[in-house]
User: Fold L-rhamnonate dehydratase from Advenella kashmirensis W13003.
Amino acid sequence: MSVIKKVTCHVVSTPIERPFTSSRGWLYKTRGSCIVEIETQDGTVGWGECYGPSHVARSFIDTQFAQRIIGRDPFDVEVIWEDLYNRIKDYGAKGMAIAAMSGIDIALWDIIGKSTGKPVHKLIGGAFRDTVTAYATGLYFIDMDRLIEEAVEEAQAYAQDGFSAIKMKIGLGSPKLDLARVEAVRKAIGDDIRLMVDANHCFTVPAAIRLGRELEKLDVEWFEEPISPEDIDGYVQVTQALDMAVAGGENEYTRWGFRDIVSRKAMDIIQPDLCAAGGFSECKKIAAMATAHGVECVPHAWGSVIGVAATLHFIAALPDQPPSFRPMPALFEFEQCENPFRDHLATEPILLVNGAVRIPTKPGLGIDIDRSVLKKYAV
Ligand SMILES: [Mg+2]
Assistant:
């Protein structure tokens, strides 16, 4: 047994060339992350990532968690999870405290994999599949004078890249404009490409239901975050009113956070983020709970190659929902906006091949981190 020796948070950030926005406003002028590095006594290094404001995640780890895990056995990953959670839950049962724990949990699973010579998916139940169909996340709002044209061009480019599924942003303050934009994209990509929409919780319940009924006519597969995440009663209403699937949960945390959504069937699809909701240890529990209630689990992914790799291992180990002759397993969210940490932080990038992505097979997360990228963009 080799115990944990050192915990280091790398906060990285870079401005991007073409800032983009969702219904939430101009949040995306930079890309960055809090990357967690954990080293054991024998020199094994594991990597994790935390979703959300990087400095806040680093502060939680540096001041609350790091000293608590130094000297412990990384194989006690769930023991450590429970200990950290019970340390922080009076102040941080949701949000950044859990995102910080997620980065630690992912890094510990990476260490366990490297120590045993097994990829993480082999440690959490095995691979139901060795590739996963990816969907492109993009079609944000960039040029306010060309909102429809730019969406059409971007969607066509994804189709050309081989994506068989695309998710676009809606929520432009005018359901008519949203609808016209989705209509134009559907027309441009044809009927064979799966299309989803994401409102980033900008609608009221009646507005979401009215718009949803129109989107159903355009064969939109799911309506992501139609309304505010706190309003579980509202989600029950929207989900019951619409035939299309309603998705959400990228801003929910832990099994306790997802319990009420799942047990009330407030959404058809929950989207826990590996780097936010509690890492592998917790997301496995969330997914199992969802299965028991007939709710699909399709993880959210937004971040560096570390979050991407973690999500791929997690999806590899998700049973088909439901099992069948020709099942339709969870899609992998392959976000396509400018992000050097997704494209260059690993020595070999994770690529789309024929609309799908290979599950990494090397030990741990199965990626090698290029430290020069951490150095170049260090904050
Ligand atoms: Mg979303």
In short: Residues 198, 224-225, 250 surround magnesium ion (CB under 6 Å). The chain is about 40% helix and 20% strand. The longest helix spans residues 96-116.
